[in-house]
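Saturday, quiet lab. Running sequence design on the structure tokens for the scaffold JK sent over.
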């Protein structure tokens, strides 16, 4: 029996299981339900505030609107500002607009709030550049204040992450190369590409249920010693099983990535590929666009999924149990998201952020400013992670191969 036939047979065993397709359908349905609760009636937004009338009585003001209407208005306002420089001219324009709103006496609470959203794109960018959330302070900023405050935020971030002098020098060089004043871009669905995080999470769930069974079936059915007697029972069959698991993993990752990215792109708009990453993390000075950032996230997602599938197959061979393997994978996902290692524990915290489900989270692992320092070169998290994931995939592959051959030979 040739290698291609073995691989097809192993793929067929995975695809004919009901559990494979039930899991696949449930995960897809889960994401659709999540979108419904965001964009459907359950996702309606209520804005409210308390004011005091001329008699000193508190008045509760509020209005509710569908999330899709809110997003449509946000898109219109942000596109109007997209391409503008974040300089004194824009900041002055913002101050004059807010002052004109405050002078209106007959404006309704709903109209006032909607008019206040006109410069939301600039407000969000300023908050992420400076850490300032008080609207009254944002209104009074000048261009000089703005970029000085960003410098303060960069210094605070360096202190929080315990950056070394060489790391500070690296980021200072990157920041000096950025063109200022910054140019605003509407980010659309690039604003928070959580779709990649969700796609990897769903793929890992699928791996834990389907791929974990590839090596355990022969042990459970006591057919492992019979397979040993066949011509391809050791090396060739192991390679076929690993390839079949990898194909299923790649296909699942591709589907979930396309599904989540296209769904979010349709709903949130195809804008923002040319926006710079500082709009999401004002202190991050690497000259990355959000389009490039998404590409990096997708690459890391695929490498993470393949590595996780290799880990699942190795654990299933070590444990001889798909249930234990599934429990181990899911427990790892849960624990890695449940606990956050403080930055004061620099080495442990940095390693923790290399866990795939943490690394593809934009605001945690991917933009961690701590570097991997090698002779004559510094690598960011997203530059070093692909090499580490490929290396670990090879390690898991070899451990599984050794255990598989040993089990087949000794029956233990």
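Result came back. Writing it out in full:
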């Amino acid at each position: 029996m040739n290698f291609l036939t073995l691989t097809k047979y192993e793929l067929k065993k995975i695809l004919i299981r009901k559990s494979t397709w039930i899991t696949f359908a449930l995960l897809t349905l889960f994401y659709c339900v999540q979108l419904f609760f965001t964009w459907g009636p359950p996702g309606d937004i209520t804005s409210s505030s308390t004011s005091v009338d001329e008699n000193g009585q508190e008045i509760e003001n509020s209005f509710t609107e569908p999330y899709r209407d809110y997003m449509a208005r946000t898109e219109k306002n942000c596109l109007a500002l997209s391409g503008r420089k974040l300089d004194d001219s824009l900041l002055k324009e913002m101050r004059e607009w807010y002052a004109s709103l405050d002078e209106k006496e007959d404006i309704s609470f709903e109209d006032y709030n909607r008019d206040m959203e006109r410069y939301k794109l600039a407000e969000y960018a300023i908050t992420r550049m400076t850490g300032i959330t008080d609207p009254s302070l944002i209104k009074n900023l000048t261009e000089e204040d703005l970029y000085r405050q960003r410098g303060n935020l960069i210094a605070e971030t360096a202190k929080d992450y315990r950056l070394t002098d060489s790391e500070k020098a690296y980021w200072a060089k990157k920041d000096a190369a950025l063109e200022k004043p910054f140019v605003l871009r509407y980010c659309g669905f690039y604003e928070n590409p959580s779709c990649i995080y969700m796609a990897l999470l769903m793929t890992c769930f699928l791996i834990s249920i389907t791929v974990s069974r590839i090596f355990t079936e022969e042990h459970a059915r006591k057919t492992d010693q019979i397979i040993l007697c066949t011509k391809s029972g050791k090396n060739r069959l192991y390679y076929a099983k690993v390839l079949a698991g990898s194909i299923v993993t790649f296909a699942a990752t591709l589907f979930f990535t396309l599904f989540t990215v296209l769904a979010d792109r349709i709903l949130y708009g195809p804008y923002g590929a040319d926006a710079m990453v500082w709009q999401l993390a004002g202190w991050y000075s690497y000259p990355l666009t959000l389009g490039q950032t998404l590409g990096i996230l997708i690459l890391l997602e695929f490498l993470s999924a393949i590595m996780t599938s290799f880990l699942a197959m190795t654990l299933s061979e070590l444990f001889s149990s798909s249930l234990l393997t599934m429990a181990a994978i899911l427990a790892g996902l849960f624990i890695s998201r449940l606990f956050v290692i403080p930055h004061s524990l620099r080495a442990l915290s940095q390693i923790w952020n290399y866990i795939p489900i943490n690394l593809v989270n934009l605001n945690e692992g991917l933009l961690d400013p701590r570097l991997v320092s090698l002779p004559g070169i510094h690598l960011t998290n997203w530059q070093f992670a692909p090499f580490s994931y490929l290396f670990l995939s090879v390690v898991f592959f070899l451990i599984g191969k050794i255990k598989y051959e040993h089990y087949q030979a000794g029956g233990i």
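Notes for JK: The chain has 19 helices and four strands. The mean pLDDT is 86. Ask whether to fix the surface positions before the next round.
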